Structure formats: C-alpha cells, structure tokens
Structure prediction request, 608 residues.
Amino acid sequence: MGRFLGHRLLGVLPVMFGVSVIIFILMHLAPGDVATVLLGPQATEVAKTELRHALGLDQPLPLQYGKWLLRTVTGDFGTSIATQLNVAALVLPRFLNTLVLTVASLLLAIVIGYSVGLFAALRARSVFDRVTITVTLLAGSTPPFWLGLILVLLFAIRLRWLPVSGMVDMAGDGGALDVLRHLVLPAVTTALGPAAIITRMVRSSIREALDRPHVRVARAKGLKRGALLRRHVILNALPPIITITGLQLGYLLGGALLTEVVFAWPGLGALLYDSITARDMPVVQATTLLIALSFVLVNIAVDVINVLLDPRLREA
Amino acid sequence: MSAAQIAPPRPFRQRHWRLAAFGRDWAAVAAALLLLTIGGMAVLAPLIGAYDPYEANNLLRFAPPGAPGHSLGTDQQGRDMLARLVWGGRVSLLVGVVPTVLASIIGLGLGILAGYARGIVDQIIMRVLDVLFAFPMVLLAIAVAGVLTPGVGTEIVSITIVLIPYVGRLARTATLSVVTMPYIEAARAAGGSPLAILLRYVLPNVLSPIVVYATTLMGLMIVVGSGLSFLGLGVQPPVADWGAMVADGRVVLRRAPHVTVLPGVVILAVSLAFNFLGDGLRDALDPRTGRR
Prediction:
C-alpha cells in the first residue's frame, strides 16, 4: 500500500509541472500589456520599459517561467494587481469557502444519489425507477447557473425562505446557522448534476451486482435481503460507485465556480471570475493552480480508497 | 460459443445502419426532430419572424409571454424574446457543435495514434492528455476563454481544448481493443501497410463509439458554452445567445422572470435532446450494448 501511494504521489510531480507550464503559457497569451495595466494609458514608453525591466518581463520566457515556478513552489504567488494584496493571503480564505460549498454539495449528492439509486435498483422497472431515470436525465441536462437563478426566484424572492446571495447576513452574527441558511441554495444548485450521475451509477452498479450468480445462490438459500445486500451486493458494487463519486468531487470543484458567481459566494470561483474581469493575472494563476492541484490530489485519494477496498487493483 | 459471437465486427461503413432500430426509438426520433427544428430555425433566422432581435422598444418593455404580437413576451429593452431565442440558437448551437466536432477529429487522431503505435508515442501523447485532465472541465474552459479576448472564436477554441483529452482517451481505449482482434493480425500477415490497416480496419471500428460519445458531449457542451456566455466570456452584447440571455434576465429576475426562464428551458431541452439522440445512436450503431 505504501509503495502504491508513494508511486501515485510521485506521479503528481510531472502532471503538476505540465499544469504549471500550461498556466504560465496561458497568462502570456493574454492580450494587454501588464505595464499599461499597472501604469494606466497615460504612462510614457520609458516608464513602461522600466517597469517591464523591474518585473523581469523583458527576460526570455523560459527564464521567466523558472523564476515564477521557484517563487510559486515556495508559496510566493506575488501581489494582486487589482488589490495590491498578497495573493496567497487573498486566495486561502477563499479556498476554505469553496471547500465548505464543495463538501456540502458532495454530501448532499451522496445522500441523494446513494439512497435514491439503491431504492431504484431494488425496485427495477417500477414507477419509482422510471421517475428516477427521467429526473436524473433532466437534472443532468440542466444548466446549473440557470437552476440557481430559478431557485433564487422561488425560494428567496417569492417564498422568502432563504437569502438571495452571499455567505453571511450583513446585519447577522455570521454564526454557523447564518452560513447554513446561505449555503442551502448554492449547495443544492451545485449538487444536482453530480447527484444525478451518482444515482444512475449506484442504480446500475447495484442491479449488476444483484444479477451475479453467487447472489442468486445466496438468495435461493434463503438469505434475508438486508444480509444479502450487506454481505454480497454492496461491497461488489462499490468500486465504480466510489470512482464516480470521486470524479464528482472534481466536477464540484469546477461546477462550484459558476454557482459561486450566481450566489456571490465568496469562494475561489467568484474570485477567479472577478480577477478575470479585472485582468488580475497573478490571482488567476494562483486560483487555477490551486484548483488543479486539489483536483489531482482528490483523484489520487479516490484511487487509494478503491485499492483499499479491492486489493486486486494493487497489481495494476 | 455461436458463430455470430466470434465473427469479427463488420466495419462501420458496411454494417447496415439499423435505421429501423433507430426509427422504433421514439425518444431518439423526437430528439432528432426537435434538434432539426431548432437548428433549422436558427439557420433560417433572417428569413423567418417578424421582429429584429436587436430592435429595442421602450414602450413595450417586460411584456409577459402571451402579449399580443409577442408570443413569448419581451425583455427589459422591449426586444422580442422569440426572435432573440431563434437568433441566439445560431451562436449557442455553433458553440456546442463545432468544438465537439473539432475535438472529436483531433482526439480521434491522437487516440488512434497512441493506441496503434504504443511505446514512446503512446507515452508522450497520454502524458500530455494527463496534464489536460488535471483541470476540472469548467475551470479549464473558463481559464482559457477568460484570459483570451472574449468572443465566439475564443469560446470555440477553449471548449475544443477542454474536450480533446476526453475523446482522445476513449479513442485510445477503443483502438487498443481493436488491434488485438484476429482480423488485424490477418491484415498484417497479408502484408497490409500500417496506414492501410489504420484507415481500413482500425478507424471504422473505433468510429462508432466516438460518434455516440460526441453526440452526448454536444448536449453537455451546449450547457458549458452557455455557462461561458453567462459569465460574459463568449459573445458580447447585443448579440443574442442563450447563456447571455439568462445573464441579461438575471438583473430583472424579480420583475420579469420569463426573460431568465425561457432561454434556460431551451438550453435544457436541446441538451436533453442531444442525450436522447446519443442513446438512440448507440443502440442503432452497436446492438451489443443495448440499454438496460
């Protein structure tokens, strides 16, 4: 197990190296001149040249990349162009807020997906099963940013049950309950797509496991349904379910980006959007890098869980 | 094992299209009809409809659906919603379909090359795709579209880049299973050149899963593309696009919900239709993997 984990973690390095190259190139493809952005359109050519020299922008690209990478791996993400704040200090609290939204959405998607999927699998071809399939199809095709607005319209504007946007009330105490009230709509919005995908995977996986010969034998020998599920079905159905759940966590990290903009949730997505609009490239770089790194680590965690559940995979 | 089970799969071109099977799938047929209707209306937009999608009318702002002369109402500038939805389809469908086709061609090429050549070529291609896989789909699309100059071209480029690794990986897996088939070995033994084997035997057999996958992806990309437009990273106002229309409606959500609701319903319907069409194509092209 230790060797497997070490091997996977070592594999992160080349991938993250590639990610950093892509992000660096992307930022250099960005139109607009940093010196003009910083100094304003009135600046003289001399002042701009001096600033470019001071920032190292007149050096060859590979050298610039090397210096940037060195600073980044030591945790120095530079200074935000728009706010003049330290980027790391700006990004970290936002990362935690995104984590709150992502984890809440994932839990919601798991609770819905596992229970509805299992129920539908046990009642194959029933009305419930058919309704489940239809709803998951609809949910999978719904644009999340639009769903968010519809939920706001219904539950915040019409029914006034929940707040329209933000993470805490201006006048409120900012306590857990306040955050929770603000969390409901964004979490439901983000969770719907993943919940649909997990439901479908749980349903098909459980049905497949129920069809296996050893399950039929156990059933024929009179094993009760609860024991049958616990001992023979669920463990066998689990690997694809775990994999798809892990993939959804990655999707949520991306999907939360749009939800955050709709609900003004102060996370990485809203920050990325604001910094793209302001062309604040150091912040865009740091945000993108951080989300990609989390995504890669989540995928490794999923692999590790799968190997723990199924030792046969360790050889692969 | 019966003879039918061990016979090699007939190449895509020769396997009859099983149009009959597709025709019996009412959901797929309805989806195809819906997409043809919406696509046809988008193409013919300049010829149909009484209203200019950009013509503002201050006297007729926020008209609800069913208002005389404006069956789907008007938006906050008094522009006809139906005309904007029809014209918006031109951009939204373009952004969903073109990148998927481009990415399918590039991904198919890379995947087949990796799966057929193996060795170092395979390693290089797959490691590059691994790097692209390290970004969540939406993040990469937003980052690429956000950094470059906003516009339809940027939107198409960003979605294409995002999709290439997904198609590439599927094409490689499909190629790997095809090249172990006895008929490939036979073709090699008969002296077929690698290129001839690729084009005549590998490509046709890899193509059908890619076609099915690409159709489903188009539905997803309509949603992703409209998300980029919603963020203002795609077409710029006053050009209509379903995602941008949802964003327009956001500021008047309280006053005129239909401005937000209608374009979203269209995105949902089109995305769903592509999914049904993909399922129908899968059943028609590959009878072995029927739906359960």
Remarks:
- Residues 81-117 of chain B form the longest helix (37 residues).
- Chain B has one domain: 19-44+82-285.
- Residues 1-7 of chain B have pLDDT under 50 and may be disordered.
- The domain at 19-44+82-285 of chain B is CATH 1.10.3720.10 (MetI-like fold).
